[in-house]
Design brief:
Layout lengths: L3 E4 L2 E4 L4 E7 L9 E6 L6 E6 L6 E3 L7 E6 L4 E6 L8 E7 L16 E2 L3 E6 L1
Parallel strand pairs: 2-11
Antiparallel strand pairs: 1-3, 3-8, 4-5, 4-9, 5-6, 7-8, 9-10, 9-11
Length: about 130
């Protein structure tokens, strides 16, 4: 079993920055791919970014490319999402996720991931 806990959300003005964190349990976290997704009210959950176990491969949704950066610290069992130049349309609940499979690649489809955190709210005011 893998447990994920997100933190770092909040209210920020457009153009501002936030850094989300996701703390994971599990002895082999360092081997798992990790993803960030978000869900706005009335919309489906959408992919934001993913990172593989070694941090060599990262992949972003077009809507956040160049503004968001995913990273991880395997020594701290944590993955991060640095968000800059935030826009009102970035407002959503942000979730981290993993499939708990050693050395698997990250993917953009939510169905690929088996474990999810409870989410953290990000609100960007105009």
């Amino acid at each position: 079993q893998v447990q994920l806990v997100e933190s770092g959300g909040g209210l920020v003005q457009a153009g501002g920055s936030l850094r989300l964190s996701c703390a994971a349990s599990g002895r082999t976290f360092s081997r798992y791919p990790m993803g960030w997704f978000r869900q706005a009210p009335g919309k489906e959950r959408e992919f934001v970014a993913t990172i593989n176990w070694s941090s060599v491969n990262t992949y972003y949704a077009d809507s956040v490319k160049g503004r968001f950066t995913i990273s991880r610290d395997n020594a701290k069992n944590s993955v991060y999402l640095q968000m800059k130049s935030l826009k009102p349309e970035d407002t959503a609940v942000y979730y981290c996720a993993t499939n708990g499979r050693d050395y698997a690649s990250g993917r953009s489809d939510a169905g690929y991931y088996d474990y999810w955190g409870q989410g953290t709210q990000v609100t960007v005011s105009s």
